[in-house]
Amino acid sequence: MGLTTVSVDVHPLSDFEVAQRIAAGDQDELQRLMRRYNQRLYRTARSILRDDAEAEDTVQESYLLAYKAMSQFRGDAKLSTWLVRIVANEALGRLRRRSRRAELIQLSGTNDHIGDDPEINMTDTTAEQPEDAVMRAQMRVLLEAKIDQLPDAFRTVFVLRAVEEMTVEEAGACLGVAPATVRTRYFRAKGLLRESLAREIDFSMQDAFRFDGERCDRIVADVLERLKSLPNLSG
């Protein structure tokens, strides 16, 4: 019996090539892109909006914005960084529209001082941890709640660095802040969480804001359906 030769693509597409294919109308490539970055983009939007449904809507709208502008992508930054910035801007815009009277998040600001402000004291609502088999599930819920309580400027930095495991440089590029600012905000955010969760935080870190298959499939399907109503952008 002869051997079967399997062709393997050893030259993956560059970000620029991916963008060009999508801009030309390649919906298979678009689906691969969405499934690759859905979780990262959802977590970014969720860290800003603190609302599951609105974060999901934001991701969908951001994909449509990205699709319309895909032909303009030149590869100066990573495609993932470009997408995160689109999502962050869309989420911040929604936040402003949702609560115009509230203090706006200033991701590029310098107000990093925590001090002893009781409004961001995270030790007041710490729940007692059960010593049984359901501890991890409960810790995940608690961790998400505690992340939601982080100061606005720290929260998105923490999600990108700790949950998405971006480098300091990647997170800074996504948010438009200096690496030193990312380091400071991440250090302080982590300190606040450790005060509340102590050792248990590491057990649930990778499960925070889990992005399940159903939501991923729904976003892909909804975006593809909405694209049918757009004019042909490949011409």
The number of distinct helices, counting runs of at least 4 residues, comes to: 10
Q: What's the CATH topology name of the largest domain?
A: Rna Polymerase Sigma Factor, Chain: A
CATH class of the largest domain: Mainly Alpha
Number of domains: 2
Terminal CA distance: 49 Å
Structural class: mainly alpha
The residue fraction in helices comes out at 55-70%
Residue windows where pLDDT falls under 50 for at least 5 positions:
1-8, 101-105, 109-120, 123-130
Q: For this structure, what is the CATH homologous superfamily of the largest domain?
A: RNA polymerase sigma factor, region 2, helix turn helix motif
Taking the sheet with the most strands, its summary is: none
Report strand %: under 5%
Labels describing this entry:
235 residues; mainly alpha; Rna Polymerase Sigma Factor, Chain: A; Arc Repressor Mutant, subunit A; 60% helix
Task: Give a written overview of the molecule.
With 235 residues, the protein is an all-alpha fold. It folds into 2 domains: 101 residues, RNA polymerase sigma factor, region 2, helix turn helix motif (Rna Polymerase Sigma Factor, Chain: A); 85 residues, Arc Repressor Mutant, subunit A (Orthogonal Bundle). It contains 10 helices and no strands. α2 crosses α6 and α2 packs across α10. The longest helix has 23 residues. The N terminus is likely disordered.
Topology:
Blueprint: H1 15-23, H2 27-49, H3 52-69, H4 79-98, H5 135-148, H6 152-163, H7 168-175, H8 179-197, H9 201-204, H10 213-227
Helix pairs in contact: 2-3, 2-4, 2-6, 2-10, 3-4, 3-10, 4-7, 6-8, 7-8
